């Protein structure tokens, strides 16, 4: 015989005395001595009695309690435990509340080992941090679709094409990371956003470089002995990229050779071979001055913490009204080598830290042309510091040279 339902009334609920009052169908009102009250549903699951709370009677009306009780009873009839099902739903809801900001940072942390310098420079994360997270960071990742992505990247899709492309690729990685965490995300959202954004019309431009004939004048202006001036001077004199230079540590220098760890060199992730940079007398003088500013072992520290940034050096040149940027001095050096010397191609490319030749050729090569590069960089230093000289010829040594 079916148990009677709806035995209570709203007035009875309000005026109920302390104790337990049945509404039928396993729904009970538990009124406490202190005046508080709670709805409780009793059900039998696989021969075992279960009790689950449905909320306070002050927050959940009699009608709402009956509706909730019927939903959970329906689950029991289908063979499910309502308490375990509610716990599952809460866990799922909690997972789905992950916002993009949390997912992006977790994805970044999990990929640091794959990035140069373990991602210390922050270039992997910066396209997201600057252009995406300010607008979408607080949005649950499961709610992000192609329209959201299109709207946030449209302002830079053509004007900052490379940055926008990187941001879109990083977003795709974040969505895959969220899916791996069990979140119900749209893995095609970035591809669909790309279709909405259309083809980029922007052409990638080379970083502006200073003509090598103008470098001595600029070098001479870097004369105040500050960290920024010294960093730019050593950048010019060595032709290295700004990353290894900014993170230069005193122990990397032995005599007149600066050894850059292989993993710090662009395009050499996972490489075991370090890269040796010959230091001219002028470069060694800069290093000696930089040691006076050293902090935590770094020769070019920032004012607050860490090391000097790319932006700091770039802003100095920008404030001086120059189009050229720090990275462009590598092109200045390469042009000087081509136009003012008769340096063999392999030596010229090795000077810039470029990988020369195929894997087989590199396997048989036993030299990094250090002696030839030492002569070349000494000649470059004389040019940079305003000393003139004639065109020189550097003979290419045999590949078997130790």
TrEMBL record:
Residue intervals of the Tyr recombinase domain: 205-377
Keywords: DNA integration, DNA recombination, DNA-binding
Organism domain of life: Bacteria
Alphabetical list of InterPro entries matching this protein: DNA_brk_join_enz, Integrase-like_cat_sf, Integrase_catalytic, Integrase_DNA-bd_sf, Integrase_DNA_bind_dom, Integrase_recombinase_N, Phage_int_M, Phage_Integrase
Pfam family, one: Arm-DNA-bind_3
Gene Ontology BP annotations: DNA integration; DNA recombination
Gene Ontology molecular functions: DNA binding
Recorded family membership: Belongs to the 'phage' integrase family.
PANTHER family (alphabetical): PROPHAGE INTEGRASE (PTHR30629), PROPHAGE INTEGRASE INTS-RELATED (PTHR30629:SF2)
Protein name as catalogued: Phage integrase-like protein contains catalytic core domain
């Amino acid at each position: 015989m079916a148990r009677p339902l709806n035995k209570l009334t709203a007035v009875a609920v309000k005026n109920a005395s302390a104790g337990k009052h049945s509404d039928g169908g396993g729904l009970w009102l538990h009124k406490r001595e202190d005046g508080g009250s709670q709805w409780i549903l009793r059900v039998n699951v696989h021969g075992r009695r279960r009790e689950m709370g449905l909320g306070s009677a002050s927050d959940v009306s009699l009608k709402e309690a009956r509706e909730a009780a019927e939903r959970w009873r329906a689950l029991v009839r289908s063979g499910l435990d309502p308490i375990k099902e509610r716990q599952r739903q809460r866990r799922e809801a909690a997972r789905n509340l992950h916002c993009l900001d949390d997912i992006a940072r977790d994805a970044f942390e999990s990929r640091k080992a794959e990035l140069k310098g373990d991602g210390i420079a922050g270039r992997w994360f910066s396209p997201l941090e600057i252009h995406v997270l300010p607008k979408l960071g607080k949005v649950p990742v499961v709610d992000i679709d192609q329209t959201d992505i299109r709207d946030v990247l449209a302002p830079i899709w053509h004007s900052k094409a490379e940055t926008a492309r990187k941001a879109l690729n990083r977003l795709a990685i974040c969505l895959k990371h969220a899916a791996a965490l069990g979140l119900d995300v749209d893995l095609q959202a970035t591809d669909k956003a790309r279709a909405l954004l259309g083809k980029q019309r922007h052409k990638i431009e080379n970083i502006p470089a200073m003509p090598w004939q103008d470098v001595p004048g600029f070098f001479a202006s870097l004369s105040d002995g500050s960290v920024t001036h010294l960093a730019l001077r050593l950048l010019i004199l060595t032709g290295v990229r700004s990353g290894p230079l900014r993170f230069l540590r005193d122990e990397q220098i032995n005599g007149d050779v600066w050894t850059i760890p292989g993993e710090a060199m662009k395009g050499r992730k996972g490489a075991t071979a370090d890269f040796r940079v010959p230091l001219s007398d002028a470069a060694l003088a800069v290093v000696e001055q930089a040691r006076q500013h050293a902090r935590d072992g770094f020769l070019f520290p920032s004012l607050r913490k860490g090391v000097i940034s790319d932006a700091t050096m770039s802003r100095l040149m920008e404030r001086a009204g120059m189009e050229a940027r720090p990275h462009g001095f590598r092109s200045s050096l390469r042009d000087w080598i081509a136009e003012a010397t008769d340096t063999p191609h392999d030596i010229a490319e090795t000077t810039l830290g470029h990988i020369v030749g195929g894997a087989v050729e590199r396997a048989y090569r036993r030299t990094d042309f250090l002696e030839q590069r030492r002569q070349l960089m000494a000649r470059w230093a004389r040019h940079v510091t305003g000393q003139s000289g004639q065109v020189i010829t550097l003979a290419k040594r045999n590949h078997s040279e130790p």
